[in-house]
Amino acid sequence: MVNKEAIVSIIKRISTRNEPPGKKTLQKTVYLIEAKGVDLGCDYNIHFFGPYSHDLDYAVRELSDEGLLSIQYSNTEHKISVSNENYQETYENDIINSIIDEFGKDTPSELELLTTALYVYIQLDKNKSAITEGVQKIKGNKYSKERIQNAIERLRTTEFITG
Known about the structure:
This protein is mainly alpha-helical. The protein is built from 7 helices and 4 strands; from the N terminus they run H-H-E-E-H-E-E-H-H-H-H. The chain is 55% helix and 10% strand.
C-alpha cells in the first residue's frame, strides 16, 4: 500500500524548493527514494519514460479526489501540488530530503535518464557498458552514449551505483 502521507510531503517539499512537480518528476523522484531503501509502497516497471509505478499514479489520483492534491493538466504535463497551502508536513525522512536536495532541480528528461540507468543497473547488470547498452536498448537514440555515461557517473557519486 502506498504511503500517501509521504507522497503528499514529497510533493510539498519539491514545490517548496522549486515548483510543483510534473507527473514524470514525481514518478522519478519517488523511484530514487525507493532505490535508497525507503519503502513507500510503490512497485515499478519499465515504461516509455523510464521506471513507472501504477501504484503511485493511482495514489495521486485518489489524493486528488480526496482534495489533498491538485492536478493542473496541460498539453505537455500534469503539475501536481498540495491543495492546502497551510498543509503541515507530518512525514519526515532524511533520505527523502537528501534526494530532493540532490535531484530537485533536474529536468524531467534528466531524471528519466538517471532512473532508467539505475533501473537497468538494479534489474539487469552492474557493468557500466552493459548499463549503457541497456539504456540504449530501452531509450533508442534519445540519449547519447556520453550522456548515459555521465548519468552513470552521477549515480556512482550519489552512491546509487557501487563499483
